[in-house]
Amino acid sequence: MAMNTARTNGLPFRHISNRNSPPSAHYTNSNLIIPQTISHNGTNYTVTAIADSAFFNCTLLQRIDLPQTISYIGNFAFSGGENLSVYVRADIPPECELSAFLRAQALFYIPCRSYWLYYAHNSWGMIRTLLRGLEGNRTVRHDTTVCVGPNTFELHHPYADTITYNINRNIIRPSSFAETSMIFPIEGCIITDSLVVDIFPEGSYNEQTVYLCPQNNNKYEFSQPIHGFDTIIRHSGTYTFRFPQGNCYDIYIVKVIDVDNDRGTIGNNVKIINTKEITNTVVKDDCEINGASRLSDCTILSSKDASVYIGTGVICENSIISNGCSITNSVKMQDCFVGEACQVANGFTAQASVFFANSYMANGEACAAFCGPFSASHHKSSLLIGGEFSFYNAGSNTNFSNHAYKMGPLHYGTLERGTKTASGAYVLMPAKIGAFSVCFGKLMNHPDMRCLPFAYLLAYGDTMYIVPGRNITTVGLYRDIKKWPKRDKRAASCRKSIINFDWLSPFTVGEIVQGKKILEALRQAGGDNVSSYNYHEYIINATSLRKGIKYYDIALRIYMGAVLKRAIKGGFLGKPTSDIGLGHWTDLSGLLLPISEEERLIDDIKNGNIESIKEILDRFIDIDNHYRQYQWTWTYRLILDYYGLDELSDSDLPRIREDYIRARRAWVAEIRKDAEKEFAMGDVEQSVFDDFITKLDHEIDFED
Fold first, then answer.
1. For residue 285, what is the DSSP state?
2. Among the CATH numbers 3.90.1570.10, 3.80.10.10, 1.10.630.10, 3.10.20.310, which is that of 2-136?
3. What is the pTM of this model?
């Protein structure tokens, strides 16, 4: 092998090849670009190495561009250079002598995708503080961090795909000796070993780092600036940083050390007893795992105020368990999400399902089930499959069918808020059951009864009946709407879900308005001298239809009066100033909102106006905070339409209030009749009946 030395504008350059051949390099304005190949006597040669002392003491040279083909850099190759920028384009770090960069004042620009290869290299790793990224304006410092924007950092790790963390850039401007606190880990960041934090004087991110000395109580006190130093945070918690007078500083998350996707973590105050296997599972603080058979690829979000308990024989795979949950007695769960304060017990099996806050599941089975808050199924023979549920109660031997089709299990159904299924109930999907309805028997013909809420759906053989509005006046409904707020077991300090407990809302009352119009239209079309009416292959007896109109009207007057009373007390009585709230409403797993707001949220996500989960959650909170204003906008229009008004005036208020009081008393009277009928059957003790009637009598207290 021959080694040739040449000079370009007084600068030495050496080329190594298998033949004696002159170098070929392009040099302009203190910039040297070395090509991948050179040609000599008609033969092309690949440039593979930089010889010893090739750029020794080249103080005039400012930039050197090395091609991808370079695989070796010799002794003292860049030694003594001043303000030198070296662009190394090789994806695989070239082998280099330890003296290659001796006393060099240089920055080395390397491919971002190969940063960890350079970082771990015997020679390149010694100058990792001098490494920068090649791609665009991105900067690689100290490890894997790529600064994409003021609040976004991408972490590249050799054992994981790129992870993007959003953090707030903290700019400290102390007028005197000052402190600032930061909570680690940042959102989405799990500390398995340690977290590295760099703090820089404002505007000098690429120039120097501030050395922080660990003190007692997790405090880090400012010391002298030292190039290329960082602070290591080894545990979760709040850390306080202290800064002297007269300077401004930027705080950056630099890297996560040893983040390994193939291993889990165990938090503080975790108790694990007699458990056979825990694999790739993240266990947060204050969790107890006692006798579990297998936890694999799970996340358990326990906390001090809402601890999680995993009991005997539990097998849980690829699932998330939220705060305050209890999973006990041989539960088998795969690909599931379990929300806050849920209880899953007694051999219940679940696959590809979600269970939201305060749901109770035991003995039975769920597959591809979306169970909103307060969903309950506790009978061994019940199967929840291919359906959406919310505030739902499943009777024994409840079953749904979504796979009696040649193309497979493609269909699903929706049982809206407050629906119940009686013992032995069967619903053929697809089906839509209106809010607070009750299903009896084997319901075929794919019922769509969303416009007839609070109904009884009954099947006698091949004949199916509907009793609209019946459930408005039952003891069961009255007990349900009273018990749900009392049975919220979530810790007040860490509630994440939003649950609106209103049983009469623009969502349910909107269906009542439609149902009342449907019944009135059926009555007008069929007349009063018929025994029954037909609606979507369901039979409505004439007496049931007339009572349905009556019950729907009672509910409407109760709702309008209650909202009007609240508007007067809240000080927003009068014509609404916004149209937000008009139109149809929906129930988003406990959050009641106008469909227009749901669509606006979806559009903002599609258009990039919302880019993080936190922003979505903030939007949900904002919608819930404006619920009463949106509700008043919707209800104001309802009042005008119901009473035939052009606008609401003070003279109209007494009439609406009187209708409200009469409706409430009629409602209470109907519930009393239902309670007396149940008591007459002989199964209810006198004391229980008396206690219920006493509570019912106190409903008069809510009229004012």
1. T
2. 3.80.10.10
3. 0.65
